[in-house]
């Protein structure tokens, strides 16, 4: 392949990538935009902004039920829920039974039953502190390496 052919091929590839990227941006419902000071943020799309309701934070917490020497019992879970989560999120929450798996710090595949807690709230420093307190308390009480947390901005109407 000549240098001219290589340059032409490179130009075609770059133009194709630019065109594809532009087309994808036009089709995207929401975009993830990195900022130098903060982790990735979700930018609400025009569709989301025009939907009825208010912009709220949705947090999903994945609580693994395996613990050293056994599992977190339903009684232990209900007590934790009543003592740590419900008082902090009295307006409402959702708890789902789930099953998950992950690689632990040693690379061992761990499979376990899980409680998925979904919280929707108006974001504030106090609510963020409440979520972190729940995670920290669970990890300490049940000897967990981690609690998976996902967060996103949503538009909700009740």
Description of the molecule:
- The chain has helices at 3-27, 46-50, 74-85, 125-141, and strands at 31-33, 41-43, 54-64, 66-67, 70-71, 94-103, 109-121, 148-156.
- The protein is α+β, with helices and mostly antiparallel strands and 158 residues long.
- The chain starts with a helix and ends with a strand.
- Residues 1-40 have low confidence and may be disordered.
Say what oligomer this is.
single chain
Outline the low-pLDDT stretches. Answer: 1-40
One letter per element, helices H and strands E, the order comes to HEEHEEEHEEHE
State the total count of DSSP E strands: 8
Distance between the termini: 63 Å
Please name the defining characteristics of this protein.
single chain, 158 residues, alpha+beta, four-stranded antiparallel sheet, two-stranded antiparallel ribbon, globular, disordered N terminus
């Amino acid at each position: 392949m000549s240098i001219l052919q290589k340059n032409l091929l490179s130009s075609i590839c770059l133009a194709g990538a630019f065109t594809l990227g532009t087309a994808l941006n036009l089709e995207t419902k929401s975009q993830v935009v990195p900022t130098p000071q903060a982790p990735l943020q979700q930018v609400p799309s025009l569709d989301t902004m025009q939907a009825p309701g208010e912009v709220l934070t949705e947090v999903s917490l994945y609580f693994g039920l395996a613990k050293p020497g056994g599992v977190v019992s339903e009684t232990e879970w209900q007590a934790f829920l009543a003592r740590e989560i419900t008082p902090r999120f009295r307006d409402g929450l959702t708890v789902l039974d789930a099953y998950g798996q992950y690689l632990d710090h040693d690379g061992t595949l761990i499979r376990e039953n899980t409680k998925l807690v979904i919280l929707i709230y108006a974001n504030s420093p106090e609510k963020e502190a409440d979520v972190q307190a729940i995670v920290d308390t669970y990890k300490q009480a049940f000897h967990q390496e981690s609690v998976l947390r996902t967060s996103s901005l949503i538009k909700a109407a009740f």
